[in-house]
Amino acid sequence: MGDAKASTSGERVRRRVLALSAGASHTVALLSGDVVCSWGRSEDGQLGHGDAEERHLPTIISALNDCEISSITCGADHTTARSDSTKTVYSWGWGDFGRLGHGNSSDLFIPHSIKALKGLEIKQIACGDSHCLAITADGEVLSWGRNQNGQLGLGHTEDVLVPHKVTAFEGVAVKMLAAGAEHTTAVTENGKLYGWGWGRYGNLGLGDREDRLVPGEVAAIAGELMKTVACGWRHTIAVAESGNIYTFGWSKYGQLGHGDFADHLVPHKVQSLKDKKIQAITGGWRHTFALDTEGRLYGWGWNKFGQVGCGNMEDQNSPQLVKALVDQTVTLVQCGWRHTVAMTDRGNVYSWGRGTSGQLGHGDAVDRSIPKRIEILSADGYACEQIESSGSSNCTSTTASNWISPAERYAVVPDETLGPLARRLHQTANFEGGELEVPGTSNDSSGDANVPDTDTKRMRTAL
């Protein structure tokens, strides 16, 4: 890892991007050599650089040098990283409701290891808006964080500050997990699909609009075994072993891909992709992407900022081929809330959609409706040779500062959609122990009949 540190002293090392993950307004990449870099919004510390400053270009998280990171996963405003070799999981960013797993609700501006997971062999971590889950090699499912709708699957609605075992899955071999804003899904080794948490739009796939406090099994589809699952904010996407793709839940913006804007309470096949064998899926706040086995990428749903990648900013209620990438084979795609990132077999990384916080990684704050190559990360560009590093804090340090003063954290508030009274709003943020209801604060949800009036937003205040 010494070569990663040397990247700021004139010695350049060519690297390749191995994995990508995207949050609400930030993006993280894992590079060869166990290097992790991040960019975008950082007012809650989700970039891990020890400050609240936005980064418009990928920047190496120096605190993770020598931590042998093997996997990364973003929540909305927090981030996790996993080291398989040291059996350690790190988290940082917005800490309200215990989503970081450290036993409190404090924000962290540099990565800290989750003590409750130390020494466990973790197969996967899933992060939603305010909650997280993990699968261990022993088959246990653990969950922590926000739980107001039962999204932790623990049988109650109390928030949990450290990982707790989901006993409902005892004796069940869970293959993978996915987390939305307030709901969670799972696929088992025998191809069954489960959903729990907030179900107002049918996003649990259980045929109704009820919440579930424990995992509920989705009715099987004749002739299909499920292989993988992904969650958007309030919709769910699943792929069967056959390669067929199914979606269900909220569809006001066409994010289900069925050619209409109707919610579906049970899995419904995306007919326009029935002749494609889908290998990967991902969901954003209100948009969806699917990748087929030929490396072709299809996007649909909310497209206000160009996040569907089809060259315009009109919502799409059926899958659209991302034509800008047809000359390459796409190998990976990830949705943020309003942006999308992808990687090709040539080692090139692309991004598009909302760019106001620099989450696209191009060095500016511009929205884009067509994929643009991130030169600093791409093999046909600078191959990660010119990535700068953040401070010198190391993940093994116990004395590094992780607190930023309120003046520094909130002097600049980059939220682009909310009014001046409530610029730092989250759906689940703390307001001096109470709730501040701010109806119609978002330009894109004002007057939205599909968003229940009981959905309160709580103002985040400085510590």
From TrEMBL:
<dbReference type="Pfam" id="PF00415">
    <property type="entry name" value="RCC1"/>
</dbReference>
<feature type="domain" description="RCC1-like">
    <location>
        <begin position="124"/>
        <end position="387"/>
    </location>
</feature>
<dbReference type="InterPro" id="IPR000408">
    <property type="entry name" value="Reg_chr_condens"/>
</dbReference>
<keyword id="KW-0677">Repeat</keyword>
<protein>
    <recommendedName>
        <fullName>RCC1-like domain-containing protein</fullName>
    </recommendedName>
</protein>
<feature type="repeat" description="RCC1">
    <location>
        <begin position="295"/>
        <end position="346"/>
    </location>
</feature>
<dbReference type="InterPro" id="IPR058923">
    <property type="entry name" value="RCC1-like_dom"/>
</dbReference>
<feature type="repeat" description="RCC1">
    <location>
        <begin position="191"/>
        <end position="242"/>
    </location>
</feature>
<feature type="repeat" description="RCC1">
    <location>
        <begin position="139"/>
        <end position="190"/>
    </location>
</feature>
<feature type="repeat" description="RCC1">
    <location>
        <begin position="34"/>
        <end position="85"/>
    </location>
</feature>
<feature type="repeat" description="RCC1">
    <location>
        <begin position="87"/>
        <end position="138"/>
    </location>
</feature>
<feature type="compositionally biased region" description="Basic and acidic residues">
    <location>
        <begin position="454"/>
        <end position="463"/>
    </location>
</feature>
<dbReference type="Pfam" id="PF25390">
    <property type="entry name" value="WD40_RLD"/>
</dbReference>
<feature type="repeat" description="RCC1">
    <location>
        <begin position="243"/>
        <end position="294"/>
    </location>
</feature>
<feature type="repeat" description="RCC1">
    <location>
        <begin position="347"/>
        <end position="400"/>
    </location>
</feature>
<dbReference type="InterPro" id="IPR009091">
    <property type="entry name" value="RCC1/BLIP-II"/>
</dbReference>
<feature type="region of interest" description="Disordered">
    <location>
        <begin position="434"/>
        <end position="463"/>
    </location>
</feature>
<dbReference type="InterPro" id="IPR051210">
    <property type="entry name" value="Ub_ligase/GEF_domain"/>
</dbReference>
